[in-house]
Design a protein that fits this description.
Blueprint (H helix, E strand, L loop, with lengths): L6 E5 H6 L7 E6 L15 E6 L15 H14 L4 E5 L5 H14 L4 H11 L7 H10 L5 H9 L6
Parallel strand pairs: 1-4, 2-3, 2-4
């Protein structure tokens, strides 16, 4: 079974082309090296900006995903409630998919990890969630490795 969520995942390029007024909230995930960030210039929709790189372990001056990033995203999504949420990163494949999975998994609740992964794949067939974000989400939501294993079995992770 796939649950339908009002979540859209896209790339930085795509978000610049969208009519963002149709969304209740936007989660922007940017690299630490971004030169032309995307900013909502009106009061609506609300925007959360997270800045970390698409890496799975510390590397040079890049910022690894942290549990605080996931907490902030979940808190923001909770405020949106059942409204529509746009989540984007540079490519719309790894970080945005992993944050969307966190939102979906939290809303579905424990024991629905397979449904959460299926729902993510339905929303974004090209998803390859960031491994670190999925590990941290699994820990934060106390899924005891179940969410992580579902992603690893069904989707695989990004390799960087």
């Amino acid at each position: 079974m796939t649950t339908i969520f009002p979540i859209h995942i896209c790339s930085l390029h795509q978000v610049r082309e969208l009519d963002i007024s149709t969304y209740n909230g936007i989660i922007t995930i940017e690299d630490t090296t971004i030169r032309e960030p995307f900013r909502v210039i009106t009061d609506e929709p609300k925007q959360l900006i997270l800045q970390f790189d698409d890496i799975n372990e510390p590397m040079d001056d890049y910022v690894v995903p942290q549990i605080s990033h996931i907490r902030r995203a979940l808190k923001f999504a909770d405020k949106i409630e059942d409204g529509s949420l746009l989540i984007h990163c540079k490519a719309g494949i790894s970080r945005s998919s992993a944050i969307a999975l966190a939102v979906i998994a939290k809303r579905l609740g424990s024991g629905k990890e397979t449904e959460a992964v299926n729902t993510l794949e339905h929303i974004n067939p090209n998803c390859r969630p960031n491994k670190s974000i999925v590990e941290l989400t699994d820990e934060l939501l106390e899924r005891n490795g179940k969410l992580y294993r579902q992603v690893d079995d069904k989707l695989s992770f990004t390799k960087w």
